[in-house]
Amino acid sequence: MIKREYIVFEKSNGEKDLAVSVDMKNGDILGSFLYSEVGNFEDWIREHFDKVLTGKSKLEELSGNICRLEIGPDNTRVYDMLDDEADEEPFCEVNTGELMELIGEWCAKRRSFKETCE
Predict the structure, then answer these.
(1) pTM value > 0.85
(2) How far is the first Cα of the chain from the last one, in angstroms, to the nearest whole number?
(3) Cα dist. 102→2, 3, 88, 108 in Å?
């Protein structure tokens, strides 16, 4: 199970927002993926996961603004495309089904948070 904690923080403009901290190797990459990519492209990302999880595709690759994904039937690798200091592109590897569940949970929590802040 992916250990996570939801954190409310204040942006520089004073607006509050929700982020997720993930307790695993390179968990910050997964947190960035959820906040930046899933937060903006939820439906598009879910389509790629659905193709793999339903067996329509063996591997889906996609790139967002910050992260690149390789979605396989068992595991998904989330790469940090912005880390210029590393010799190799750093990544976080997660069970694909579990990540899909986390994406659903994250989207529900984010929507609920935004509704209470309006």
Answers:
(1) yes
(2) 32
(3) 8, 10, 26, 10
* Helix or strand run (H / E) with residue 63: strand 60-63
> Domains of the chain: which residue ranges?
4-117
4 near 21, Cβ under 8 Å?
A: yes
| Burial status of residue 26 (CB atoms within 10 A of its CB: 0-12, 13-18, 19 or more) | middle
Q: Which helix (H) or strand (E) holds 106?
A: helix 96-117
Roughly what angle, to the nearest 10 degrees, separates helices 96-117 and 39-53? 150
The values of phi and psi at residue 18, to 5°, are: -115, 135
How many whole angstroms separate alpha carbon 89 and alpha carbon 36? 18
- The whole-number pLDDT of residue 40 equals 87
Size (the chain), residues = 118
- Tens of pLDDT, residues 14-64: 999 999 999 999 999 999 999 999 988 999 999 999 999 999 999 999 999
